[in-house]
Amino acid sequence: xTPGTPPGTPPGTPPGPARPLRIAIVSYYLPSTSKQGIGYQxxxxxxxxxxxxxxxxxLSDCPPVDGAVYGHRHLRMTGSLRTFRFALALRxxxxxxxxxxxxxxxxxxxxxxRVPRHVRTLAxxxxxxxxxxxxxxxxxxxxxxxxxxxxxxxxxxxxxxxxPETRRWYPWVRDVVPCGTDVGRFRPDAGQRADHxxxxxxxxxxxxxxxxxxARQFQETVLPKHPDAELWMVSRDVPDDAxxxxxxxxxxxxxxxxxxxxxxxxxxxxxxxxxxxxxxxxAMASGLPVVSTPNPGALYVTDGGRxxxxxxxxxxxxxxxxLLTDDARRDALARAALRRVxxxxxxxxxxxxxxxxxxx
Length: 360
Known about the structure:
Strand order of the largest sheet: 3-2-1-4-5-6-7
Number of helices: 11
Largest sheet: 7 strands, parallel
Oligomer: single chain
Structural class: alpha/beta
Order of helices and strands: EHEEHEEHHEEEHEEHEHEHEHHH
Shape: globular
């Protein structure tokens, strides 16, 4: 019987609402060394759960995050196929001291019940990403990861997806629990707005975030209409010769990122795929109009494009140039975004996960 459980409770019964929970969260990624959005979301989730009094331990390949208020167990992998070997390492662990296992990946070998409650979050679909990622080796890796997601969704007691579009690949998963954003940190402050047009980007120069393409269109389409405009890129792989108007910010702290959102005039992330897209929500919570491409995450977060400008990739530069000229439209989009972002507050998301952890 789990310690703290009332006498006579059958073994394996999920803990009741009267006491804090011992929660193990599995995430290969954490923001200590990884740029993956999953890692940032897990860090925020674990922090809020710990703040509520739960005993939280994150199992990760990444080292602990500086200043984290939750526990950490480092499962360090080296060499090739690290994510698959990480999943095997998880299988060898004794998790019986936890009330809840909440996996954000890599739990597909845990088919025997090891804790009273096993929750799985599918953060997008690797099958969907395989359609757009470049390179045969990467496509094959994504397909294998997609198959692992299918297995994981069957292993867990309860599986959720972070956006409705993900259910296209896993139609047996009924529940959607989106990612959450700390609206206390990401909030509007008109007094911080820059005195010249600034477009903010958060992502990678290379790959599916398409930072290089955004920079090209910015220089070819936006700068001729707005010569004093800048493209601020929160990215660690922007080349030194990125070109005129591009300002590489590197990696920012949480407070520095929140300030950058407040200073910008518009946010743009032209990804070819996002399962959700946390930076869209952070921008919207900051009262910043968003320009995106029609990827599944952006369409969900922006309510089908009703609270943002959603344009084909080839038209992103023109959409930004027009938006920077139109003060009224930027204000209207910002107001609509602030209403929409109420669906994605960190507190509401953690409320839903707490209910899942305690569900019979």
